[in-house]
Amino acid sequence: MADEIFRDCHDTDDFVRRLARWRPGTAVPLIQPESKEACEAVRSLTHPAASRTVPDPAGALIAAPRGSACAPLARALAAAVGGRYEEFGSPGDIARAAVRQDTRWVVPVALASELTERDVTGLHDALWEAARDGSFKGHTGLLVGGTVPDVCWQITKGLALPHRRPPQEEHVRLWPGVDGTPHRFGQGPLLLRDAATEATVRPLLTGGHTGVLSVIAHGRDDVIHLHDTVICKGPDQLPGPLDDRAHLPVCAYTGQCFRGDVEPSRVLRAETLVVDTVFVNACMTWRIADGLFPHPYLLPHAFLAGTAAAYVGVPNLVNGTAKLNDLFHHACATGLSVGEAVSLVNDHLRRERTDLPYFTVLGLPWTTPATPAPATGPADTTAPFATVRESDADADGGTLTAAARALAESRDRGTPTHLVHLSPRSAPALAGAVPARSGLADAERIRDELRALGAAMTALEAVPLLGFRYSRQGNLMVNLRERIAAVTTALRRAVSTGDPARTGRRIDGLREAVRNAEAGLAAALYERGTTSFVNFDDLWGEVLEQGPPTSAGADCRYCARPLVRTDAVHPLFTHIRRTGLVCARCCMVQDLDPASPVADIALDCAEEWRRGSSVKVTLAVRTAAATTTPVDAFVAVHTEACERNHVGYPPPRRVLLAPGGAVTEVAFDADVTDRAHMHVESLRGFAVARGTLSFGTRPVWVRPSGAERSG
């Protein structure tokens, strides 16, 4: 029965002639590939009754490089599918032709030696410029091989794919590169780290038939690394002298795998895996021309030598984001073609910017990798995919924004949710998804808080560089660095898996660590200030370079004399700065960090204090106008060396400073004992806010009590 699907050809000329006359429902031309086993496997997988439908390829743009040996093949394919043929000299030529004629399918056909990875990324960029505004809604798949017969084999498998039997497993996720246990999206086996063993993977992928295989693994050396084995072309020792062969892998010389823990018999040969479509989310897995190794050893060619009708990889480094694999599986499960599914992934990345948008199909882009899942009625409001339309997308992409949006959406729905950005061409494609409902505001609050915590970390690390050191400072900073590292890792995981639980815990831990560090700093400042005459500006004055004083354009609030502004900067770390206001009578009345959320700090109290009395001191802190959320702060007041001078003050107090330029007032009671030292004293108030230090100072005079004066 399977033989009725194929028509054997004698050579490439015969293949080209028969391909030009091919029409759906007739026998697909076939040249015996290098691997007879792969050919027999493809024959055994097919059946005359079509098992899946494919989109109409009519009108497809089939293009070949000028003068390419693949040009006759490309012309024949265009005739077979009712498309049009064009030659190209650059990726821009293809993009212009595709946009000009409103093409749905774009299929460059070439030898591996005729294209570079840069050509491929250039094609993606050129087509995106048209797709982003809706003027191009097509999808791309390349037919590239080391030889013309290799390309013929890809065409044969693509045209015959509708006749393949339903696979035993529609979807298999082979993810040895994923940490932990991610939330499950979709059906089918999920093999993580220790489960991705030769004993498990071999029977699954060679003894059965898989529709869509996705991979997340280390693969930049054209080898997919599993727990105790690898997937590659295979460890074949080549005969004869090899000195004139450049860049051969070690197995070509020795017959042994380069991984010492992998016996040659346990290596999984890519061409023996019985799969229809392969999606590889691993670094540098779309090398097509001779690179680290000659082209037969490169992963795309190794997979396409077998049963795979389509291979998807990337020519660049990636982060291994599981969401992209889940999105590809979901798109295929809803009946999208491989080209549409990859456009959905790439267009999402253009907006989210957590990876490079260069996933590329090797194969016919209109092939349908999986049988559409049965309709289940109206969209479920708890669906695992929530979409953001391009017009709603936040222009500030990247991991932090993406993680904040994923956290907000998942918290809002109460379940892990993948957030997917849509473009005009991908908007109609994602079936079963629901609109995102958390909105940008929730995500912005999360993002702004995390950036504020990061800024606090930077400010806290600057404190010892300003000359202020205290016990446990090093331990607190080590803890902070560990928390920062944990949060950044968790942010990537939130984007990858859509699960907010771990990230939320890590953020809570960082928030607590920053609060503890700020509390420790406030306690140290209070202790130093109440036991010594050392001012903070004395410390940084020995470190920072001070610029020339300038008029502050304002008068001292305590004595109405003109104020002078001083600016100082660290000689090595120019982000460390201080700004002071100096009065000829009251000394430095204000000492601020320009990066602080505190814009002004003042002390309101009586000028003269009597021994044996309690004096009310109000610390007034005004936030910067740009602050949008309340600012957690520790504040305190004291006079210099007040412990030895017998004046008491309460310890630092934690408060919330009102945002947006508002003033927050905090009242303290100073206990001026009957033994208080009588002299002019410098009353100081400080605020530790988001890791920054802000000081206000004014003079007060301690006088005898009424009884002392009358005596």
Write a structural description:
- Helix 12 (399-413) crosses helix 13, helix 12 (399-413) packs across helix 14 (473-497) and helix 14 packs antiparallel against helix 15 (501-531).
- Helix content is 31%, strand content 24%.
- It is elongated.
- The chain has 711 residues and is an alpha/beta fold.
- Strand 1, helix 1 (12-21) and strand 2 form a beta-alpha-beta unit.
- Strands 20, 21, 22, 23, 24, 26, 28, 30, 32 and 33 form a ten-stranded mixed beta sheet that branches. The protein has a six-stranded mixed beta sheet with strand order 9-8-10-14-15-16, with helices on both faces.
Element layout with pairings:
Elements: E1 6-8, H1 12-21, E2 28-30, H2 36-45, E3 61-65, H3 71-81, E4 84-88, H4 91-100, E5 105-111, H5 117-131, E6 139-140, E7 143-145, H6 148-160, E8 169-175, E9 190-192, H7 198-206, E10 210-216, E11 224-225, E12 230-232, H8 250-254, E13 268-269, E14 275-281, H9 299-304, E15 310-313, H10 322-333, H11 338-352, E16 360-362, E17 385-388, H12 399-413, E18 418-421, E19 434-435, H13 439-462, H14 473-497, H15 501-531, H16 536-541, E20 545-546, E21 550-555, E22 562-569, E23 577-583, E24 587-592, E25 598-604, E26 608-610, E27 613-623, E28 631-639, E29 647-648, E30 653-657, E31 663-672, E32 680-689, E33 692-703, H17 706-710
Parallel strand pairs: 1-2, 3-4, 3-5, 5-6, 5-7, 8-9, 8-10, 10-14, 12-13, 14-15, 17-18, 17-19, 26-33
Antiparallel strand pairs: 11-12, 15-16, 20-22, 21-22, 22-23, 23-24, 24-33, 25-27, 27-31, 28-30, 28-32, 29-31, 32-33
